[in-house]
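Internal QA ticket QA-208
Title: Verify multi-chain structure generation after dependency bump
Assignee: T.L.

Test input:
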Amino acid sequence: MNLNKMVTISVFILSALGVAFSAQARITITIAHTHVETHPEHKAFLAFKNHIENKLEDKYEIQIYPNGLSGSNERAFELVKINSIQFMAVSSSNIENLAKNYAIFSIPYLFNSEEVFEKFICDPEVLTELGKNSDKDGFIPLAAFTAGTRNFYAKFPIYSVDDLKDKVIRIQTGRTNSLMMEAFGANDYIMKFSDVYQALKHDVIDGAENNELVLVDQKHGEFCKYYSYDGHQMIPDFLIGSRDFLKSLSDEDYAVFKEAAMEAQRVEFREWKYRINAAKEQAKTMGVNFINVDVKSFREKVLPLHEELLEKNPEIRELYEMAKKYH
Ligand code: GCU
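Actual output:
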């Protein structure tokens, strides 16, 4: 073998090893969410990823799995707790069966406006209170994302609360949601987010409840031509991290992840304002009618639930008192 050939081979081997070493040194982080790539939460996670990769250079390789590619919210939540997935965005409703204080957000008509709700979920004291048992729960909340206001939408028009009577409406997991639907007089059907499209298509359900984005992002507007502004709940999603993963970080790296979460929150809120208006316009072109209803009739049905829920679940009292101060 001549010298040139030997040098070339050695360079090749060394550079291959070099790549292997640097690849080995990078820690892979998996992020899961169930939304499409134009959704504010996806944009927020891109900002999260960029922040960490810029600040900590080659230390972490961050992979984002949108569209429920890593499983349903319920499944991904289990995987975060055992550190198979490191971060996800998850609705407080999906958390409340494990960490009971998150049920605060399922209380219908807790906030008087989205503005108040947004201020509340961005309050660092609220995040601290929510995360007070994270050592036991296996996950740590790092930031809240707005998910707007939840309203009913269906294949039939809903003008008053009586129109819900005996109709089958999909809700997300969380005990409080079932109690609320019972008070509204409807039949609830607990179902994974990703199953709602097929359930609407095959007439398994008459309608559902969510923010306007699902009409276009999840194409529910193909079947539900009526969206009624009853405004029964404002339920945030939380950017949560695996406790075991976060606790394994150095203080310096942990601080960067926290900064990244705040950056993600800023991006999510900014994108939300823009996307929600665009989605409404897009839904109209799909033939969806937006209906303004008499909110009072809906509110009256469920207001007695506040006291009942506080009694059943004392874990929410502290946050309930905090929320009341925002009014
Ligand atoms: C919202 C929320 C999701 C949640 C969904 C649902 O879209 O952003 O996190 O999964 O509602 O109703 O299941």
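Spot checks passed. The pocket of alpha-D-glucopyranuronic acid is lined by residues 34, 73, 91, 147, 172, 193, 210, 214, 237 (CB under 6 Å).
Status: verified.
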